[in-house]
């Protein structure tokens, strides 16, 4: 039987080895991280994803949601590894204007305040979307002048509230169908396609310094839906409408293949003098995950990161939360999950190391 001293030495060695692994993985372990201090080379000199991205003039972000903010280990990584934060739900219409003309900033403010305390910037998400609308808006019909006034008031009140605190707004989210036709939302049906230009103009009036984006999924590669954005961007520019960027959500799934035209697609928007960003990245798979699936997933994260770095106006990458513990996927796609670079125990997966490699 081994002596107590041998056992405690072994324990110490194991703890040391674990700390080395965590530090190598960029997982903050020290008191600074636990206090949610600024990201930076504060843990053993190991640069964070944000530090690495900044060396390329890019950001590396994560979405988060209010209920998760009681989870201190989760918060420590959120506060240390990233330099851009997106509220996953807290700034949506149902949350911010639950009754007509009655605004509630509590959820958005909580996330903005946390981000500011951690010296992180914020992407505002989202002002105009057909989903997660309040009942008062969806439960009745509107004339065009009525809905126009409602939309203008919502956009301008929200953007004004956060004026100076938001790096970029997803002004209109998911405006197109897969075939590139306009999605028949209440806004489109009541106001026509001009609601997009109006929304951008109203947002710009309320915070002239915020970058204004159109944001959608399945527009990573070149195809009818991303073509629709390309064409709309040109039309808006010709009309002098304020538009700064296109957000490619990048909710990928192993079973559908990698969007190999991503880099070319980013480049064509750059040529229009528009920024681009990967705004909601995750790569889902059928669970359980195995080594082969995780390896492919890691390749995809690497490829996406490299594509963004290769195109000057691709300004940054945001994960749609960073850990499988809080991913939206299992609730929406039965049998799928494991989409993020950190697992449910907050341990880094091969995807995490692949992103580091790409950024290094
Ligand atoms: O707030 C209620 C809570 O009161 C209730 O107990 C609970 C029971 O299901 O539901 C809660 O609402 C959920 C909400 O998230 C807040 O957690 C909704 O059911 C759920 O549907 C909703 O999901 C969000 C989803 O958008 C809605 O479409 C996800 O969290 C959010 O990550 C996801 O984000 C979207 C982006 O905004 C746009 N792009 C796609 C992306 C993924 O769908």
UniProtKB/TrEMBL annotation:
The keyword GTP-binding does not apply. The keyword Hydrolase applies. InterPro entries: GH, GH10, GH10_dom, TAT_signal. Residues 1-35 form the signal peptide. SUPFAM superfamilies: (Trans)glycosidases. It catalyses: Endohydrolysis of (1->4)-beta-D-xylosidic linkages in xylans. Keywords: Carbohydrate metabolism, Glycosidase, Hydrolase, Polysaccharide degradation, Signal, Xylan degradation. It comes from the Bacteria. Residues 63-358 form the GH10 domain. Its EC number is 3.2.1.8. It holds the Pfam family Glyco_hydro_10. Belongs to the glycosyl hydrolase 10 (cellulase F) family. This is Beta-xylanase. It comes from Streptomyces cellulosae.
């Amino acid at each position: 039987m081994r002596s107590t001293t041998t056992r405690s030495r072994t324990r110490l060695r194991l703890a040391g080895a674990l700390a080395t692994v965590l530090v190598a993985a960029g997982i903050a372990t020290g008191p600074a991280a636990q206090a949610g201090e600024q990201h930076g080379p504060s843990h053993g000199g190991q640069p964070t994803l944000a530090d690495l991205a900044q060396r390329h003039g890019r950001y590396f972000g994560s979405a988060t949601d209010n209920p998760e903010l009681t989870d201190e280990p989760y918060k420590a990584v959120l506060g240390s590894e990233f330099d851009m934060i997106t509220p996953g739900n807290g700034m949506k219409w149902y949350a911010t204007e639950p009754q007509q003309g009655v605004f509630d900033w509590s959820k958005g403010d909580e996330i903005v305040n946390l981000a500011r305390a951690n010296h992180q910037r914020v992407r505002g998400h989202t002002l105009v979307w057909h989903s997660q609308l309040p009942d008062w808006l969806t439960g009745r019909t509107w004339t065009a002048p009525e809905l126009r006034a409602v939309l203008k008031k919502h956009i301008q009140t929200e953007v004004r509230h956060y004026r100076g605190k938001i790096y970029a707004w997803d002004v209109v989210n998911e405006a197109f169908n897969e075939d590139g036709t306009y999605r028949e939302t209440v806004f489109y049906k009541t106001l026509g396609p001009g609601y997009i230009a109006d929304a951008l103009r109203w947002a710009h009036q309320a915070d002239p310094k915020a970058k204004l984006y159109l944001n959608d999924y399945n527009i990573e590669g070149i195809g009818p839906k991303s073509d629709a954005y390309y064409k709309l961007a040109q039309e808006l520019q010709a009309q002098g409408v304020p538009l700064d960027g296109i957000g490619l959500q990048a909710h990928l799934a192993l079973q559908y293949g990698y969007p190999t035209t991503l880099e070319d697609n980013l480049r064509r928007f750059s040529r229009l003098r528009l920024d681009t960003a990967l705004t909601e990245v995750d790569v889902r798979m059928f669970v359980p995950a195995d080594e082969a699936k995780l390896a492919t997933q890691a390749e995809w994260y690497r490829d996406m990161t490299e594509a963004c770095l290769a195109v000057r106006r691709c300004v940054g990458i945001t994960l749609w939360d960073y850990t499988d513990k809080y991913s939206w996927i299992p609730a929406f796609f039965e049998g799928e999950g494991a989409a993020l670079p950190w697992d449910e125990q907050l341990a880094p997966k091969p995807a995490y190391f692949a992103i580091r490699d790409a950024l290094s």
